[in-house]
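Q: Second attempt. The first request was missing the SMILES, so the protein and pyridoxal-5'-phosphate are both included now.
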Amino acid sequence: MKMQMVDLKGQYLKIKPEVDAAIQGVIDSTAFIGGPAVKEFARQLGDYLGGCHVIPCANGTDALQIALMALDLRPGDEVIVPAFTYVASAEVIGLLGLTPVMVDVDPDTFNLDPATLAAALSPKTRAIIPVHLFGQSCDMEPVLDFARAHGLFVVEDNAQALGSDYRFSDGRKARTGTLGTIGCTSFFPSKNLGCYGDGGAIFTWDDALAERLRMIANHGQQVKYYHRVIGCNSRLDTLQAAILQVKLRHLDEYASARRAAAAFYTQRLKALDPEGRFFLTPVEDPRSTHVYHQYTLRVRGGKRDALKESLAAQGIPSMIYYPLPLQDQEAFKSITRAVGKLENARACAASVLSLPIHTEMTQEMQEEVVRAIAFYFGI
Ligand SMILES: *Cc1c(COP(=O)(O)O)cnc(C)c1O
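A: Got both inputs this time. The predicted holo structure:
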């Protein structure tokens, strides 16, 4: 069997009876759109997150778009976003005629660096989109303090970190996605809580905002055929909700499996290269639990692409998330306001390499990956 970045088949086989029964139940009921599983799943996920509202939608990108639509922003308003992230975090800003203001990231955690916010602020700034990249929380306390001081909304892109906690300086802990004004997530199959197609959800504590988000996701209507605002059609389908109900029960187990795999990689890789001369292993922010959506190395000395090629030749998959920072993307060049040189974002894009990590990873597989890395560097 060839190694894979994620093993969705192996994960499915372990919960096959539960998932198959859930799918059959939806087919038997033929409630394909808006069936009871959608509401039940939303409530269960809300409970998991500490009691907030959960508004299901069609995918993570829609979640971000609907979040921004609910905030009544005007064309030309500015939204701060890290330059090193998946395109969706910033794409929705451009789509709504808003201006993405790109800030740099912390090179250790890959997350938005709160120290950049002051320089990003202008009279047009309305919101910040911190992204919890690769599975750990952005340092949210200074982001939230800054937002409060300047009257900004905070829309968390939690597509990669569902299940992660953030610890405030007073010891209080809360789930990522529930810290800001609105949280967004994706149930894309390879995400930590993935369905078998597309899916997404939006979180908020605010009752009125929850109603508004729900209305926007449903053609701007609260009463059928009476449309109060321009909305969109963004639904989580019942089959996906039924599958997610099953998988949510395993989410913490999945996070533990990912954390264990990451700890094993780090132990083995640090033993290979104790001084970090060839590569740097992931840095865990003590304020966050890392749920390792990705296990991402920073490869030194411009050797990233050569290492990737060597791994491929040895039968080991690896991925570059993400090869080009957003400020250098053609689609963003004409609409972006860049804050500073964004050098960390560029350096991350040039050096990152994500190794296979998933819930079914065995230590034998990981030893194989580590051996292949050792072989390339001759260490
Ligand atoms: C996956 C992802 C999204 C988008 O989710 P989709 O469901 O694919 O639309 C947004 N932001 C980040 C950081 C992601 O990883």
